[in-house]
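User: Can you predict the 3D structure for this chain?
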Amino acid sequence: MNTTTNEKSTVWRRIAIVTLLLLVLVGPNFGPLPHLLRESLSLEGSITGVLIWFWVAFLIILAVVYRMNKSTSIGEFLTSHGLGAPSGIGANIAGLILGIVWALLFLSSILQFDPDANITQINGFRILTALLAAGGALLEDLITRSFIMNQLHKIGSSKWVQLVVPALIFALYHTVWGFNVFSFVFSVVYGLLLGGLFLWGKRSLTPVILGHSLVVLIAEPFATMLI
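Assistant: Here is the predicted structure, written as structure tokens:
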């Protein structure tokens, strides 16, 4: 009984630490950081700066998470968190559909703000931002989907708890620096959908990558401009 209690306490403490890091390191990207960068940089420079900080922040958090799993190699760590793990074709198709639909939602939002935006333009800058954003989304999913959901699974939490907790955390750090109800609910729904793909895909990140990284591959740099 003590071992189980101690294990649960350790898991929730780890989740609390990761949540705090997400709020402090990643949260400002959805609040003051873009405005600060825009004061001294061009629009392209600001977008690049935001995406680079996403990478830095997520890598710092992943380093902390890796230390929490100090008995594994990097390869074992990534494999145990679903990277490259086999997944069902149904979950992969659902991830593909979600990625395309969510990207179109982003692009339609941009056209509401700027009807003259050329969302089909392909250039070096757009390719760079798309690759940076897709990689950042993968790092994010290793934390908010794989790590948190696997930790909850480890202590026997129900699938609903595994879905809801990371979705709420995901929504919180996306909106805490500039909170509004619509953005929070929107983020919760998206977090639930990505978590559902992770469970449906037998804890493989493949359908999650399709549902998340594909969005920014299609929508960048316009997705970051919405920040």
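DSSP finds ten helices and no strands in the chain. The two ends are 47 Å apart (CA to CA).
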